[in-house]
Write a sequence for this structure.
């Protein structure tokens, strides 16, 4: 990376870090059951909501407890259930149209990060009807309050229920990009472990590793606060102690509840302290190949941590201790190595592959350019890398063709 651009990146990140204490971050109100949702809406005189979800959750019956609770309380609802795994601009526009045509007064994002992200973007388009989704890309481009938004996560990973971010795919250009602004933080997050009980094992594992990626990238970055460091480490402890339990026994509701709490804490931490190159590369893969975000993060994370080298050693020690794989006397360098080895062990234990299918070598320069544009100068990573260096991560995880 050119020294002048490096200086610009670090200066940009320093300004944001200094501004953290005065920026209008807030935490959503937390509910622990979907049965509490109707009264929450009625207290605000909201009597018709748009539920943004995906087709599988709708036909599987997962929505029934929420639908019954709303109906019994006299709250009308309209359902948009066409959200795709990487929500697109088209998804957002169709859901927005349904919101307006039905006369809705509020939004419920019900599902994984895709459904909640789509609901956030719908809110942004309603708040800023003259701005397109691409025009709101980046930071502080929404600015106006969005309709009252409740997030009901059915996975324990993305943290979208507490973050300033939504990530949308431009389906015309096969490019995935984030929108970051404070009005996008949901007003209410429903952390109901029953909503995650039937989560398949592969989604339990990859969304859980997504939460771990959030916590680690938030903690090792250069824009942390005392609170984000504490939340990130608590998320790490919860994930280390509960993810594999939830994976092996989906009916372990204590583990499920602890994972929801971990995802919430990690989401709050990275919302303030940002993520790193793991996310930037994962987003580019999701936009181009529809690679599930949690899977991409899980596979990429050890490679990205290795590339940071000694820049993460000091903070890796605290993370390794939180995971119970290092002691006070373990050297920082050894802690980094144990952390990377533990992530690989967890992936293997839960059947997460070491490579990602579908990556084409001819796409790599363009994908790396997308990742570079997303990450620099915004993400306060331990070690700055340019697009050329980022290309290596795609090669690292590209499935070898026999």
């Amino acid at each position: 990376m050119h020294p002048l651009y490096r200086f610009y990146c670090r200066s940009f990140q320093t300004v944001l870090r200094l501004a953290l204490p005065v920026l209008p971050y807030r935490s959503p109100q937390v509910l622990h059951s979907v049965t509490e949702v109707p009264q929450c809406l009625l207290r605000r005189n909201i009597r018709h909501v748009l539920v943004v979800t995906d087709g599988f959750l709708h036909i599987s019956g997962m929505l029934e407890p929420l639908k019954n609770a709303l109906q019994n309380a006299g709250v009308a609802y309209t359902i948009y259930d066409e959200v795709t795994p990487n929500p697109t601009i088209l998804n957002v526009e169709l859901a927005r149209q349904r919101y307006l045509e039905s006369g809705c007064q509020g939004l419920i994002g019900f599902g994984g990060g895709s459904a909640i992200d789509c609901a956030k973007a719908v809110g942004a388009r309603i708040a800023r009807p003259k701005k397109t989704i691409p025009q709101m890309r980046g930071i502080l481009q929404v600015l106006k309050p969005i309709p009252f938004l409740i997030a009901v996560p059915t996975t324990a990973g993305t943290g979208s229920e507490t973050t300033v971010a939504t990530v949308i795919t431009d389906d015309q250009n096969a490019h995935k990009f984030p929108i970051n602004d404070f009005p996008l933080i949901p007003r209410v997050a429903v952390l109901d472990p029953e909503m995650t009980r039937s989560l398949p094992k592969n989604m339990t594992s990859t969304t859980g590793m997504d939460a771990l990626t959030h916590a680690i990238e938030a903690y090792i970055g250069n824009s942390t606060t005392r609170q984000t460091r504490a939340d990130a480490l608590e998320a790490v402890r919860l994930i280390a102690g509960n993810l594999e339990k939830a994976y092996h026994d989906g009916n372990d509701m204590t583990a499920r509840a602890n994972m929801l709490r971990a995802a919430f804490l990690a989401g709050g931490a990275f919302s303030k302290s940002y993520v790193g190159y793991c996310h930037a590369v994962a987003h580019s893969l999701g936009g181009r190949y529809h690679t599930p975000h949690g899977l991409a993060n899980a596979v990429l994370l050890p490679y990205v941590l290795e590339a940071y080298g000694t820049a993460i050693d000091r903070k890796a020690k605290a993370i390794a201790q939180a995971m119970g794989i290092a002691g006070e006397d373990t050297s920082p360098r050894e802690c980094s190595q144990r952390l990377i080895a533990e992530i690989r062990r967890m992936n293997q234990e839960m059947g997460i592959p070491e490579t990602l299918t579908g990556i084409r070598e001819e796409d790599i320069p363009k994908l790396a350019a997308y990742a570079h544009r997303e990450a620099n100068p915004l993400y306060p990573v331990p070690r700055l890398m340019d697009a050329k260096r980022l290309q290596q991560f795609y090669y690292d995880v590209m499935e070898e063709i026999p």
